[in-house]
Write a structure and sequence with these properties.
The complex is a heterodimer of chains A (203) and B (186).
Chain A (H helix, E strand, L loop, with lengths): L23 E3 H16 L5 H26 L9 H17 L5 E4 L6 E6 L21 H13 L4 E8 L8 E8 L5 H5 L11
Antiparallel strand pairs in A: 2-3, 3-5, 4-5
Helix pairs in contact in A: 2-4
Chain B lengths: L8 H7 L2 E3 H19 L2 H27 L7 H17 L4 E3 L7 E6 L21 H13 L2 E9 L8 E10 L11
Antiparallel strand pairs in B: 2-3, 3-5, 4-5
The chains are: A alpha+beta (203), B alpha+beta (186).
């Protein structure tokens, strides 16, 4: 089959110029695709927790790639090595590229030192989703939580990331909060220089 | 109210809400990867992607008709043009060209030079039998079925398999006469 008759020209991804990331597709096109992702995964699980985990896995795969892409394109091949730096990278750069806007807020948890929250009034993936009553607290934002975890993990900040609905006074729809709980090994001294980054001492 | 005028693909695309194509591309990639892990057989993945596309197609046609104001096409040739110029543009932001008509006018090819599904994609040796964009063929088939056209949609050329373009062959099998579920006098 291969090479029969005409010349085959396999393109190597790395030989192609990197796109500027300005191309767009319609939001509904994305929504159809996302809905198929959710529906397919529903057929593969027995419970809500499992469904969220699978969506998170799918998101993780996106996060890994987003980190690599954006560090190269937006940050001149540098990546953040500080906790607050990477959090603000997720909240601003990643959000802006993926969802067209900076996330509504980034806050530090009040009860635990190692918790941070990114909140969004209307998360893009939840725009056209209403969760049936019998599915309880299920939140499709698990996909976005996975993206966040993928970015953080691969930047050297392992964390547990989950998505939650939080009711807002006077609003019909709840907002979605992405809760980030950093892993224990990121205790304070390590927060300053995590990951296998090479550095030189200048003195 | 004056009859609505059909709108061009560009005009519709300019007016709908849009998202970054990279989010779309990477999400699609995640879906394909998940299917490959779950189903293992490339053939099964092709089938599942086609099924997902079909599910999308049968829903997407409603939005397409509502936003495009397209009226009934006189023949299959017009249908193909509308899919290529309005349908693809409106959802994916790219247009296709229509060629390779057979003499009866029931089989043609949609050629995509730009395809937002495949940015960053390269097929590994283990996935050579994969029709990576098979979801698109399902979408076209599903959407046309909802407007009474049974079609067979197959990939003829695929850039991920070393061809110079994406070529989707659409073959009209039969027109299903419209059946009304209600009687006239009701």
């Amino acid at each position: 089959m291969i090479g029969a008759g005409k010349m085959k020209q396999y393109t190597n991804v790395l030989d192609k110029p990197l796109s500027k990331g300005r191309q767009e597709v319609s939001l509904s096109g994305f929504a159809y695709l996302f809905s198929e992702l959710v529906q397919y995964n529903q057929t593969q699980v027995d419970n809500i927790g499992e469904l969220e985990r699978r969506l998170e896995d799918a998101g993780y795969a996106v996060g890994v790639r987003v980190l690599e892409l954006l560090c190269h394109r937006e940050k001149g091949n540098r990546r953040e090595t500080r906790l607050l730096g990477i959090l603000s990278f997720v909240h601003s750069t990643v959000w802006k590229v993926l969802f067209g806007k900076v996330a509504d807020s980034l806050e530090k948890g009040t009860e635990h030192e190692d918790e941070y929250m990114i909140s969004e009034k209307e998360l893009l993936v939840n725009r056209f989703i209403s969760v049936p009553k019998d599915m309880g607290s299920f939140n499709c934002g698990a996909f976005v939580a996975g993206i966040v975890r993928g970015v953080l993990d691969n930047a050297g900040f392992p964390a547990v990331v989950t998505a939650h609905f939080v009711p807002v006074d006077g609003q019909q729809r709840p907002r979605t909060t992405i809760l980030i709980k950093f892993a224990e090994e990121l205790s304070l001294p390590l927060l300053l220089a995590p990951g296998p980054v090479s550095f030189c001492v200048l003195h | 109210m004056a009859p609505a005028v059909p709108r061009s693909g560009d005009a519709i695309f300019a007016n709908v809400e849009r998202v970054n194509a990279e989010l779309f591309t990477l999400t699609y990639g995640a879906i394909v990867r998940q299917l490959l892990t779950d189903l293992e057989e490339v053939e099964e993945v092709n089938k599942q992607l086609d099924q997902m596309g079909y599910n999308i197609g049968i829903r997407l046609i409603d939005e397409f008709l509502a936003k495009s104001n397209v009226t009934r096409c006189v023949d299959f040739r017009e249908t193909a043009e509308v899919i290529a110029k309005v349908g693809f543009k409106m959802f994916l932001g790219v247009t296709a060209s229509v060629t390779n008509w057979d003499t009866e006018g029931t089989c043609c090819s949609l050629i995509l030079e730009d395809n937002p599904l495949v940015d960053f994609v390269e097929l590994p040796d283990t996935c050579q039998g994969l029709y990576y964009c098979n979801i698109l063929s399902g979408v076209v088939r599903g959407a046309l079925e909802m407007v009474s056209m049974k079609t067979e949609v197959t990939w003829v050329r695929d850039m991920l398999r070393g061809d110079d373009a994406f070529e989707l062959q659409v073959k009209l099998l039969k027109q299903i006469p419209e059946e009304y579920p209600y009687k006239d006098d009701e």
